Amino acid sequence: MRPFFSPSAQRTFFDRHVPPSSLLAEIAKITSAPLELMFDAVPFPQAQQEAYDILAPGGTLLLVLQLKIEVKSDERKHAVKVFASGYVREENRVIASSLFKVLSGLLEEGAMK
User: How far does Cα 79 stand from its chain's mean position?
Assistant: First the structure.
């Protein structure tokens, strides 16, 4: 499975069906640079561990669900659970709802990246 590179965002996304055991080899095909920031949207412990192991010292792993692995303080790596929603605060709901109605169009025309 080939990774998807988004030139406008300058980010590379890997399909969720890439086995965690193959992730390092797939990354090595596109870069030899240390990975200082990784976003893991797959909630499986094996995927979290693989992302954490690949991360450069001093790097940060962003997770959408609870951390399921042990973070070693001597490795100077960080793992942070992130959350975002336009609906959590009542005062944001109208703006979020308006944005979500037009977001696809803004992305398609390049007005928002």
Answer: 12
